[in-house]
Task: structure prediction
Amino acid sequence: MLNIFWQTNGKKNGPNGHNGVNGKHHSNGSLIHFDSVSKIYRTSAGEFTALRDVDLEIKDGELVSIVGKSGSGKTTLINMLTGIDKPTSGQISVGGTSVQSLNEGQRAIWRGKNIGIVFQFFQLLPTLTLLENVRLPMDFGGGLTQVERDRRAEELLELVGLEDQAHVLPARLSGGQQQRAAIARALANDPPIIATDEPTGNLDSSSAEQVISLFEDLVGRGKTILMVTHDDELASRAPRIIRLSDGEIVS
Result:
């Protein structure tokens, strides 16, 4: 059987010699390190500071909730971590890689190997079956044969309890099932870090419970998970809570 977490304990290198997350940590032992990170958006209405001198350290294997009111900087922080956006100032190190030093193409490759992203609205491709959706990141990532990709996708769907729905289109599933499929897709290339933005925002309480329980299981398997949420009850399930207000960490 293909080992679902084949990359977690292996050694991967990022583009052009940049080290991937695995096996590399900041000098103080943190897996993720923000050093005085600020993000300023310049618009026709003026400047808006989304993050202000954020210092943050997250260690390997943590489940962390990121909470705060709308506009507090939660999503911006996740976008900085994943390389979707770049800081105006400050440094971000993830597993020894200086994220903002990578160009756009390098960041895309690095992100595909090292970070799985789970969105509020699932973003499954509606014309693909669950198996095809989960397999998609592996199709772009390379390194596995077609048979291995299919087998891994099947095992990931089994991990999230959807093995019987492998050949079903997303529209035929409940919101909770679609979100679990999205989590399986985020795990496709076995990234050590999972970043989620309001992962239960569109789910009922029962489905939300299934998702957070899955996150807890994945942390037990060695994953590091950051979970942006406005739900205090959900946030309380994480051993560590980071609270943002007006772009600053307040607790």
Remarks:
- The longest strand covers residues 46-58.
- Residues 15-249 form a domain with the Rossmann fold fold (CATH 3.40.50.300).
- The chain has a mean pLDDT of 85.
- Strands lie at 32-43, 46-58, 63-67, 89-94, 97-98, 115-118, 193-197, 224-228, 240-245, 248-249.
